Amino acid sequence: MKQRDDEGRESRRKFLKSMALTGGGVAVAASMGQVTAGQAETPEALAAQEPAGYHETQHIRDYYARAQF
Predict the structure, then answer these.
(1) Nearest CA to 11 among 25, 26, 19?
(2) What is the separation, in whole angstroms, between the first and last Cα of the chain?
(3) What is the C-alpha to C-alpha distance for residues 3 and 19, in angstroms, rounded to an integer?
């Protein structure tokens, strides 16, 4: 029975080690995909994007008119 327990522990250790290595590999691959995707944008594509941040639209002006601040 002792030999069987040792084999079970050894196989669990191998499994956990392989899962840790796999998880690390997936994390590295995912971060590399984000880096390469960000580098693919051209200056023309960046200039064509709308500016970020607050901008007042007709919808917002209507809300302010009804809110009676």
Answers:
(1) 19
(2) 79
(3) 25
Strand, helix or coil for residue 11: helix
Using one digit for the tens of pLDDT, what is the confidence trace for 29-65?
A: 777 766 555 555 677 776 677 677 888 899 999 999 9
Which DSSP category does 41 fall into? Answer: -
Query: Over the range 41-54, which residues count as b (16 or more CB within 10 Å of their CB) and which as e?
Result: eeeeeeeeeeeeee
Any idea where the domains of the chain sit in the sequence? 2-67
Structure tokens at 26: 């997936």
